[in-house]
Write a structure and sequence with these properties.
- By secondary structure, the chain is an alpha/beta fold.
- Helices cover about 30% and strands about 20% of the residues.
- The protein contains 5 helices and 8 strands.
- The protein has a 6-stranded mixed sheet, sandwiched between helices. Strands 2-3 form a two-stranded antiparallel ribbon.
- It is globular, with a radius of gyration of 18 Å.
């Protein structure tokens, strides 16, 4: 009896030919905000994740009830996406959201052009620490409100005020599970970074 053929691995997705800018982007936010999900949803290559099971030992520093999470990123998430119309290839690095991983965060942030900050309207204050880190590093960012199932919609002007965002900082909504939604948020960030680079030109 012949054995059934094994499924073939996906074909590799190579970098596009031509004149593309290669850009390092951080995907950041507090614990349990959807960073791993967003990178997995949008990456054109098999995304890399360094998640480990959470234990009761983390209860004193992490909210183990957040979104029913049972794992947490302990090093980095990585993915890649090409924006052909903008001639940009984005390398996406998801960073741990907890303060105890700050040393790793600093290393990952080195060389990044900007960041997409994911926030949850149910716990906006949890995002301040990450935004402070970005501002300390001098990185521009856009903010995306991750629309978790069952979360009520909020006026973005109200969210902007609660987060105390600068007028120029983009604020959008997205669903971290949906590829097109995350792509739209990344395009918003890319346009913002191009605009800010123009502002800094002599």
């Amino acid at each position: 009896m012949a054995s059934s053929p094994s499924s073939s691995p996906p074909a590799p997705v190579y970098l596009p030919g031509g004149d593309f800018d290669l850009v390092k982007i951080l995907v950041v936010g507090p614990f349990g905000i959807g960073k791993t999900t967003a990178i997995e949803a949008v990456s054109e290559i098999p995304s890399l994740h360094t998640e480990e099971p959470m234990t009761q030992a983390a209860a004193s520093v992490d909210d183990l009830a957040v979104n029913g999470k049972t794992t947490t990123t302990v090093a980095v998430d990585f993915g890649r996406i090409t924006l052909p119309t903008a001639h940009i290839v984005l390398y996406l690095f998801g960073t741990p959201g907890q303060e105890r991983f700050r040393v790793i965060w600093n290393d990952i942030a080195h060389g990044a052009l900007g960041a997409l900050v994911l926030v949850d309207t149910r716990r906006l204050a949890a995002s301040f620490e990450v935004m402070d880190l970005l501002e300390e590093a001098g990185l521009d960012y856009a903010v995306a409100v991750n629309q978790f199932p069952g979360t009520p919609a909020h006026d973005l002007a109200l969210v902007r005020g609660k987060l105390d965002l600068e007028d120029h900082t983009p604020l959008v909504t997205c669903d971290a599970r949906d590829r097109q939604s995350v792509l739209n948020a990344l395009r918003t960030l890319a346009n913002h970074l191009v605009s800010r680079a123009g502002d800094d030109s002599p």
